[in-house]
Amino acid sequence: MTKKNTTPFYNDTVWQLYDHISKDLYLGRPDMEFKERTCNSTLLMSLLTALTRGKALIIGEPGMGKTTTAEYVCAFFYRIPLETVWRSAVAGHPEQTEEKIIGRPDLGQLNRGTEVVRWSYFTLMPTKIVDEINRLPETKQSLILDGVDRGKWEYLNTAIINSEFCFFATANYADRGTNTIVAPLMDRFDIMIESKHPGANLAYRIGAQDHNGFALCDSDVEADIHRIITSSASYAQQMVQLEDVSTQFGKDLQKKLGVKTLSKQDRQEAWAQIQKIDFDLDANAFLRLIIAELSFCYHHGQKRSLEECDRGCHFSGYLCHAIKNCISNRFAMSARLFAQAFAWIFGDHLVSVNHLMAVLPYTLAHRIQWQAKFIAQWDTEMRGDPLTIYMAKKAVGEMHRRYAEQAHHIKEALAVAYRIRMGDDLEPLQGDHPLYWEILKDVGKERWEL
Amino acid sequence: MSNPFEDFHPDFYQTKKPAAERIQKAQDQVVGQLVDGYLNFVTAEIENLAWMVEHEHVVSVYSQFVESIKKYNYTTYDIEAFCARWDQADVLPMMIPGPIGLYLSALINHCRTAEIYIRLKDFNCRFHFLGYRLPENKTLILEGDTGDFTGAGLYGGSLKVRGAVRNWCGAGMLAGELSVTGAAGSQVGIWMQSGTIRIARKANEIGHPRYGGRVYVKDKLVPINTTPTDRQQNGAR
Q1: What CA–CA distance (Å, rounded) separates B149 from A370?
Q2: How far is B57 from chain A (nearest CA, A)?
Q3: B83: domain range?
Q4: Quick count: other Cβ atoms within 10 Å of Cβ B54?
Q5: Do B69 and B105 sit in the same domain of this protein?
Q6: Which of A296, A385, B52, B233 is the most buried (most CB within 10 A)?
Q7: Is the peptide bond before A361 cis (omega within 30 degrees of 0)?
Q8: What is the pLDDT of residues B96-130, one digit of tens each?
Q9: Residues A123 and A177 in one domain
Q10: Contact A121/A84 with Cβ under 8 angstroms?
């Protein structure tokens, strides 16, 4: 299963970007360690979001650098000047309209009787940022659902589909002006991360020293991009022209800052490399165990947010009892993709349980709706993360413990299930975890009585 | 519909059979070898069924069995499994009761385990010649009744029968100890030269002649000159 890749890995370039941003532009404490390298999870996960064409929700107190992180990552990763990134960002507020977010009719053309859509920067640019997304009313959040999910934007009778884009949204903690992010939109985020306070000593340095963030500004390039975006060329032509301008901007950046950035082709190759990274069998089985535990219900067939968990259930020791909702299929996709990207950036050719463990809390935190009693139970514990991420980390730790206890048996059960599905006359292996029940269902056996 | 367990294809993950299944398979293989070895011999010797009563032939057959089993790596469990196989056998060579006991004795005497336990009461048939030439430092415990010639030619080992024995037990015994918790048939200890035989219950008849050793019946020593006419004294009716 191990694949040795012969094409160059671009992970060094991404690490250079990380180092540059973390040194000069986004000051945050390292809060995760992997392969003897410490890093800041917010910045690293943001870079992985850009790398995987993903969607990230960055939460935190006001002024903690949520938007700044997204802007710098977008600017470096797509070689776009900051001014353009700012123009393409959408501010979340109750008065937002579809015309401001997605596109509007070309009024001049409309007066001449022709219906032509003028797409917004946000729609056209590959870097999409919605600032303070939870200030958008719930009804307006639905405007961007399809676009965020598939890169498909529609206005009047016209539509465009983004070939490559990443999406960042920032959200402050709830206050009088915020709204709930609707579940379908929340689920579309691959990860949720917190931009934390950097601590008094780093915070003291912010603003006290010169930073070269303005090197990312270039009014000439911005004007060129504006000309392209407002031209009547097709979306595809605009993207080709944009890449030409971006290539030049990338060279300028390397000259000014000494930072190498990725061309579109580099990004595509990196993306292809990431997608080729396989899961080892433990990572594979562990992810199955997690999905089983977060979607299983013995009494109702699966978790449903409107159905109460039975108190006397045999599985009350598992997380299916602690949560209200059923984990979505997007979770598995996000976990796979981010684990692959995480392995890639650390130069590994196979996703292991450790890679999964590193990214899982961020892919789970916003997708789990906990039962009130578990929130009350864990809320009082000492922690360094917001409650949602802390609970996700605890949950991942618990599930990992369960996996470690029966890893061999689970892999055996899956291997036996394969043979049963291929027609061998075998009995499925039994065990005390929802995953074994899921296997039974998939091999066409009735579930057992307890 | 595709197989959702494709990643666990045998090319990627080799299932390890459950321990019980693995052990069973290994044991089946060993027992199969033992059965084959025995059948090869008995099929060739089947016309000599009169051998049982000829001392020299018994010795010769035993020696051939010893030679044939040297190449096998077996345990006490395999011996018990072999007994079970024999008990359920429906092929003629396997049903001949005489040589099987000698074969079993050869297996027992050359098994690496010092103390061997065989639960005979689980089997329908009677095994003869069990404990034949049981050597020194070897203990054989038989749970259940045995057939003829139990402990014949005992060679220094300790044979404990938790049940009854039939005729000629301890015949030609050279050394060691044979104890029987039940009754014994006739010719107990015939031709014995040394060692001890203890019969806890009655003995039908003490063998004659005896050249040495001690025979106890119901904890009473039976003098060496005891003749068949003394059988009433030894508890026989």
Answers
A1: 77
A2: 50
A3: 18-113
A4: 12
A5: yes
A6: A296
A7: no
A8: 667 888 889 999 999 888 889 888 888 877 888 99
A9: yes
A10: yes
Total number of domains in chain A: 2
> Element (H or E) spanning A359, and its range?
helix A353-364
The token pair at B3 is 């197989």
Residues B199 and B135 in one domain: yes
Residues contacting residue A432 through CB under 8 Å, at least 6 positions apart: none
Of the candidates A161, A186, A170, the one whose C-alpha atom is nearest the C-alpha of residue A331 is A186
- The reply to whether A271 falls in a domain is no
ipTM over 0.85: no
| Structural contact between residues A35 and A65, judged by C-beta atoms closer than 8 angstroms | no
Alpha-carbon gap: A399 to the closest alpha carbon of chain B (Å): 21
Query: What CATH number should be reported for the domain holding residue A171?
Result: 3.40.50.300
Chain A residues closer than 8 Å to B3 by CB = 418, 421-422
Distance in angstroms (rounded) separating the CA atoms of residues A364 and A338: 12
Residue B186 has a CB neighbour count (10 Å cut-off) of: 18
Tokens 């009473």 label which residue?
B220
- Judged against a pLDDT cut of 70, whether residue B23 lies above it is answered with no
The reported pLDDT for the residue numbered A2 is 45
SS3 (DSSP) at A411: helix
CB A21 within 8 A of CB A72: yes
Tokens at A431, concatenated = 């065990």
Q: What would the DSSP string read from start to end of A124-193? A: HSSEEEEETGGGS-HHHHGGGHHHHHHSEEEETTEEEE-SS-EEEEEEPPP-TT--PPPHHHHHH-SEEE
Residues 6+ apart with CB under 8 A from B20: none
Q: Residue B167 in contact with residue B53, Cβ under 8 Å? A: no
CB spacing of A412 vs B16 below 8 angstroms: yes
List, as one string, the DSSP characters of B53-101: G-HHHHHHHHHHHHHHHTT----HHHHHHHHHHHHT--SHHHH-HHHHH
Percent of chain A residues past pLDDT 70, beyond the cut: 96
Q: Kindly list the residues of chain B whose beta carbon comes within 8 Å of any beta carbon in chain A.
A: 3-10, 12-16
Domain hosting residue A133, numbered range: 11-262
Q: For residue B151, which of B136, B173, B167 has the smallest C-alpha distance?
A: B173
